[in-house]
Amino acid sequence: MTTVEFSEPASSLPRRSPTLEELLPPVVPTRPFHVRHRKKLIAAATAFVLGAVGVIYVVTHQPRTVFDAKPGECIGGQVARDGTQGKISIIACGSPHIAEVYATGTAGHDVESATDPDAIRICQTNVDPRLLHELATADGATVGLLTSFDGDGKVLCIAFSDSSRMGSYVAAAAN
After folding, report:
1. Residues in Cβ contact with 88 at an 8 Å cutoff, skipping those fewer than 6 apart
2. Contact 88/96 with Cβ under 8 angstroms?
3. How confident is the model at residue 96 (pLDDT cuts 50, 70, 90)?
């Protein structure tokens, strides 16, 4: 058996040069953008949706006055039979209410009484005869009007009930 001896130490032998992968630190795979920024994306989407809902709410829920009521909408609160307005609001006719708007219109001037020709035109002449019959035959119903004295001549023709009632005169007359 023969032994071979090296005259130079192994450290001085030529080595191969390192590859680029060996020189660079190990690459950690990155997660996709939507995974890395999930919380920020959720917060931004939530803020956008809440902002849109807020804008829609403000646009669609402007405070309504009783003079914004349309025929078939009901009034809750206190309305005097002489037509003077107390604290009133527009409510659903399915809830107990004291009055219902059965017609609306605009006169060329402020209407001061139910005998005004414009009040008669708005609250009687231009109203469906079936509705007038429904109001005339309804037990405890009285008709009257509310007027705006802002110079706009708005007239609300309303049907009062002797007691809180549920349901709509306008809907009943349409059937």
Report:
1. 66, 75, 76, 77, 78, 79
2. no
3. confident
Task: Round to whole Å and give the CA distance between 156 and 63.
Answer: 18
* 8 A C-beta contact, residue 67 and residue 85: no
Classify strands 74-79 and 85-91 as parallel, antiparallel or unpaired.
antiparallel
Tell me the pTM.
0.55
Of 82, 95, 72, 67, the C-alpha closest to 153 is: 67
Strand pairing category for 74-79 and 154-165: unpaired
Q: How many residues does the chain have?
A: 175
Strands, E, within the chain: which ranges?
74-79, 85-91, 97-106, 141-147, 154-165
Q: What are the tokens at 169? A: 């005169």
Torsion of CA 156, 161, 164, 170, to 10 degrees: -60
Residue type, 116: D
Residue 170 in tokens:
């306008």
Of the candidates 66, 71, 73, 68, the one whose C-alpha atom is nearest the C-alpha of residue 89 is 66
Q: Please write the tens of the pLDDT for every residue from 42-73.
A: 888 888 888 777 766 665 655 567 777 888 88
